[in-house]
Amino acid sequence: MGYENEGTIFALSTGLGRAAIAVMRVSGAESKNLLTRLCGDVPPPRHAALRKLWQDAGTKENLLDEALVLWFPGPKSYTGEDGFELHLHAGPAVIKAVAEALVAYGARPAEPGEFTRRAFTNGRMDLVEAEGIADLVEAETESQRKLALAQSDGVLSKLYQNWADRLKHVLAHQEALIDFPDEDLPPEVEQGLLTEINTLINAMQTHIREGERGERIRRGVVFAIAGPPNAGKSSLLNWLADRDAAIVSPVAGTTRDAIEVNGSLAGVRVTFVDTAGMRETEDAIEAEGVKRALFHVKQADCVLQMFPADDQPKTIFPGAVLIGNKTDLGPVPAKVLGETVVPISLQSGEGLEALRQLLEQKVEALTARSSFGAPLLTRARHKAGVQEAVACLQAALAQDWPEMRGEELRLAMRALGRVTGHVGVEDLLDAVFGQFCIGK
């Protein structure tokens, strides 16, 4: 996808459908001229003013709407360009008429993400902050909102920039060792250089490890509900979803495929996956269901392994939460194979609130911030860039030639630069900004 970075663009920033207000955003060099033609004058910067909008304000021809108008002169605007907002009445006819007037004056509809791309191009934000804006628009839970807001506010960018600045300092010392080999520089220079490289490697590797938590917050925590037929898996899913999401039947093997339900626990997005009952079978369809169940078990962040009171499991999935169901029909052991069992009855409701609290604790543990409080990595692209930087720094430590070590340090800086968008990112921009909604 290519963008025409010239010209003035506009887009509806609010959603389509019945509403009281629709916000039309405009950005570009001709913004002031367009606003003057619509309402006759330009209000004070960043002050809402009530204005009549005309097809041609000079002749007062064809009244389009009466709207709140906000003028944002560049560079102190979202995009860094001159721009304005029109808070229109949200009727489709009003929106259509105003859009046609803007096109008649020379503006064009914006491409997805073009407003934010212009903000990036004009230095109003870096690539990591721009992705934070996209995540903020998509945020469904409190944890997603907080994580996206921190990223869009530059918390993650500041961490990467700090690493880049420290690498520059290391590279400067390395260049001194290369340029002045006969100057008898103190040995502390090279030793300090190597120590700082090791410190950076450790910090980056910790960031990568903690990244799993950030990715879970962004995409949600996945629980797979597994166990033998008639263990109560579908009933548990329905209780967690607070609706009849899955068919419940006393007939063993009712669930043949995976059923997913989204929800929220401890302010974090969660997905519960009900899977087919696991058992040996000659039925080809049921066997495929068991195969898919095992796939979801392997992909899940946590497995809820259920069993009925009269059928204890012979094996336990790693890290699984053991749930013994049907306590109303018989006792459930406190432990199975050394692992603690959560006793419940989906029929009577016994133990369900305790189970919910346990699941919330599990979610909090899977998404908790590290003790040192560094911002969490959130995207595979960021992870790949930091991993590349680590590989280059490790290669730098292995080099005997100072010139080769210096080159590896430069490659590490470039890897970090591509994450924030400061170097070599043209091939990334379309993919990053193409995910945005039109009004961003």
Automatic annotation (TrEMBL):
GO cellular-component term (any): cytoplasm
InterPro entries, sorted: G_TrmE, GTP-bd, GTP-bd_TrmE_N, GTPase_MnmE, MnmE_dom2, MnmE_helical, P-loop_NTPase, Small_GTP-bd
Q: What is its EC number?
A: 3.6.-.-
Plastid as UniProt keyword: no
**Keywords, comma-separated and alphabetical:** Cytoplasm, GTP-binding, Hydrolase, Magnesium, Metal-binding, Nucleotide-binding, Potassium, tRNA processing
Q: Which GO terms describe its biological process?
A: tRNA methylation; tRNA wobble uridine modification
How cofactor binds (record note)? Binds 1 potassium ion per subunit.
Q: Where in the cell is it found?
A: Cytoplasm
> Which positions are annotated as binding GTP?
230-235, 249-255, 274-277
| Cofactor needs | K(+)
**Binding residues for K(+):** 230, 249, 251, 254
Task: Locate the residues binding (6S)-5-formyl-5,6,7,8-tetrahydrofolate.
Answer: 25, 85, 124, 440
Signal peptide per UniProt: none
Q: Which residues form the TrmE-type G domain?
A: 220-364
Q: Which PROSITE patterns match?
A: G_TRME (PS51709)
- Which Gene Ontology molecular function entries are recorded, alphabetically? GTP binding; GTPase activity; metal ion binding
Q: Which CDD domains match?
A: trmE (cd04164), TrmE_N (cd14858)
Q: What class of enzyme is it?
A: hydrolase
- Residues recorded as binding Mg(2+), renumbered to this chain, are 234, 255
The UniProt subunit note reads as follows: Homodimer. Heterotetramer of two MnmE and two MnmG subunits.
Role description: Exhibits a very high intrinsic GTPase hydrolysis rate. Involved in the addition of a carboxymethylaminomethyl (cmnm) group at the wobble position (U34) of certain tRNAs, forming tRNA-cmnm(5)s(2)U34.
For this protein, the record's PANTHER family field holds: TRNA MODIFICATION GTPASE GTPBP3, TRNA MODIFICATION GTPASE GTPBP3, MITOCHONDRIAL
Family statement: Belongs to the TRAFAC class TrmE-Era-EngA-EngB-Septin-like GTPase superfamily. TrmE GTPase family.
Protein name according to UniProt: tRNA modification GTPase MnmE
Q: Which organism is it from?
A: Acetobacter cibinongensis
